[in-house]
Amino acid sequence: xxxxRNALTCSTAALAMAAALMPGVAAxxxxxxxxxxxxxxxxxxxxxxxxxxxxxxxxxxAIPVNVITAESMAKQGSPSTVEMLKAxxxxxxxxxxxxxxxxxxxxxxxGQASVNLRGLGPERTLVLLDxxxxxxxxxxxxxxxxxxxxxxxxxxxxxxxxxxxxxDAVAGVVxxxxxxxxxxxELNADYRYITGSDGDLSGSVLxxxxxxxxxxxxxxxxxYKSDLPVLARDWAVLPFESNPQGGxxxxxxxxxxxxxxxxxxLGAALPDPGCAALGEVLTNPTPxxxxxxxxHYTVWDNLVDKQxxxxxxxxxxxxxxxxxxxxxxxxxxxxxxxxxxxxxxxAVSREVPASALPAGFGGLNTSVTPATLGGYYIPSTNxxxxxxxxxxxxxxxxxxxxxxxxxxxxxxxxxxxxxxFDYGPNYTPQYRSVFRTTAELSGTLGDSSLARDLAWNLGxxxxxxxxxVTFRDTLTVRLQxxxxxxxxxxxxxxxxxxxxxxxxxxxxxxNALPGSPPLGLTNPGYVPALANNNKELVDWMFPQMQxxxxxxxxxxxxxxxxxxxxxxxxxxxxxxxxxQVRTNSYSTEYGxxxxxxxxxxxxxxxxxxxxxxPKPTSPLVVESQGTPVSLSQTIYAxxxxxxxxxxxxxxxSAAARFEDYGAKGGSTxxxxxxxxxxxxxxxxxxxxxxxxxxxxxxxxxAPVSSLAGLVVFGQTLPVETKGNPNLGPEKATxxxxxxxxxxxxxxxxxxxxxxxxxxxxxxxxxANVLAAAFPAGGGTCNGDPAFIASHFAFSSGCSSSTITRxxxxxxxxxxxxxxGFDFILDYSIPDVLAGGTVNLGASATYVDKYSVGQLVIGGxxxxxxxxxxxxxxxxxxxxxxxxxxxxxGFVEYAQGNHNLRLTGRYTGAYTDQRGLFTYSAAQQTGxxxxxxxTPPTVVSPTCGTVTAGQxxxxxxxxxxxxxxxxxxxxxxxxSVNNLFDRDPPFSRQDLNYDAMTGDPxxxxxxxxxxxxx
Length: 1013
Known about the structure:
Residues 62-173 form the TonB-dependent receptor plug domain. Residues 1-28 form the signal peptide. It is a multi-pass membrane protein. Pfam families: Plug, TonB_dep_Rec_b-barrel. It is found in: Cell outer membrane. By secondary structure, the chain is mainly beta. It has a domain at 231-303 and 343-412 and 474-542. It contains twelve helices and 56 strands. It has a 22-stranded antiparallel beta barrel. It has a five-stranded mixed sheet with strand order 2-5-6-3-4. Strands 12, 13, 14, 23 and 24 form a five-stranded antiparallel sheet that branches. The radius of gyration is 31 Å and the shape is globular. The protein starts with a helix and ends with a strand.
């Protein structure tokens, strides 16, 4: 709240001071028609066109810009930003819904929303606010931070624009433009009913005063989203045999245990006897078989997590003189996701150091220091162990005097919940804030002998985006200590007596669990005296930690434009030149156990040891560590642009930009050429060609990591993505050609577009990394030893069934070639049904191809890494989900104060190119070979084939909106989204649908009210 208070104080003080100094702000202006309602009009010469610094037309010009106005959005019921972006035909793979299971594509992105033009990735779409850059996080701009009440329109440039804007404008530009010269007061409020949740609320206030020379606008917005649990949708919770990849894990609790005699293993891992009673699934339940106990971890999760968001925005515009104007704006926004649900704890996937084991324990991995054990030791003195043996005398073989928890087969809490949270899920609170302010002087210089209509601008933009994540994970040595009865914050590990005084045991067996709360099951084997109810012990073993990332921008922009004294048949040549100094900063802060400087070794939390190899080694069972960094980079740029009207019917626009990133980033020059030819009064041709680029983000070259739990050969395992200081820039060439038709009330356009990228900045695709190490699709390793050692950790041997962790790195990846068509159609019919007007419109995008070239990792080409992404789901690859067809259309009837609109949203079918899924008893390989070479026709827990989801079905959703203007400047809107309550198409993913494409909400009903003064 201190940040909020300071931001508001500074912004409000600056605006108030400027308003007090400038004349005319108190002189209220009337709205059109002589009423005192709000007015929101700007002179035509102030219209901004995205993609050029020279004024011109939008969709009818050489620049393929789509304009989405606030009025058109209101007629659709003012959909949320995520809904608007998901419906945009030119966008695919939208981050916005809760999806914690894909690193960089929804994991830890609760409350954020991105724009992904052409499916090339949100990092390749430049998002602007009033034509100025905005601070980013995780390589994209979070558009949920924008002040919706103050937005007049959104301009979508579906073309590369590096020649105009510089880095990141590879796929295009999305420019959110705020309202200008608003006069009055506007209040908005709405409630959205969503089955299975408490619904969503939002409200906003917009106030503006316009004088002769000065205008001032202030806005505030608030949004509240309720939890939507996975269990609230039956399609999101499916049996194991329907989708083994739908949130099922062999790293369970109850889990599996290997019987020991001393440190000698006496057989295979055995499932906990209480597995089935707690709702878990036993696969291959045959005598002597390799039986696996699988738990459904997604039953603890949400499809939508609770979010509280607010935005505060102000803009002052004043004419200092007849030729000079000052514009100042400020935005502060925050997103609070207080309780994103997570699995009660994470899988135990890291080895335990010998310093936490009894002296002389055998079977250690001595290639590291300290030596480690590929599992966790349970002594026979553990009360849970003793009770299991007493209740099931034949559970362990004769001679057993202890047990081993194998890596990847257990987690401290799952089916029974986490006792720290009243046997509920774990939570990962996230708080994000953004502040951006700009100050710009602009004016005119009049005419000179060399140029006419000279205009100039000089501006400064500052922005800061901060994201803080609070989470919990298990410490390896503390888990091991607690299994031995030496757990607790006040237990002296070296001198304490197991289970005595301040030293406590942790019970890993099912007899510690009262039941399964999400499934409503009671555990018949529960022994209350053995429950892990000591919250002090659990908190010590499963501590809370934080990390924070901060990005900052500081831009200085200068520009000069005018008309050259050269007259062509089509008119005078117009030009613009300018320069920019842009400083980007990135810093990270890590707290306690995530900080590699504070806890460099796995046993540092136990004994303070800082001497280990490799160093650092994370002390946590899943989460990685980071080293605090503070990075800064300054970019210098100059640009120029010409508008050449060769004839009345033929216009050429040329632009070029040079950017210098200094010694570490190099430099780049990017030209662009656009042209429009008016062949007939009703038909025009337009085209463009140019180069674009994207510099490596600082967070990608920094020594930091991100982590997600992903399905690896049927097992959910931690996958770490690491930064790479040796990254180079990616480059692209794009061109387009199209036609514009205007006949009467019919208006249409068709554009063909083509992008060719090379050296793309991406992380090593998990699917390719797995294929390189296991070309047969599973089994034993069959790849380069150095490659395998740098990417995998194993509990024993080198096999797909013993993987405990996968590490991938940011790289310059393969080439990408993509092309397709955009279609737009609008038509109106006047004087229909009592003098009303029928409006019809449609827009669509067809992706003809999206070809990904061969991947090279460490100088070695990866066989089979090239693929076609168009029309595919592209799971675990460099590409995003990419249906070939995507479109929307509407039929609208407007009459007087009434407006009725039916909107259809279409997404074409696409293919999960992973093919059918065949699972074996252990479900480690997911190959046909695991089932004897032929896919069985009968699905069973022992061995089965899942054919559903190979083809992800097309989706056609309809929304109906009625809007009416009532007396007293009041407007009411009723919207029914997903009118026929269609479920999202099934996809073989954790949540059983594609969260970047589908809609999980079902039918919703929204009531909105707007009051103007």
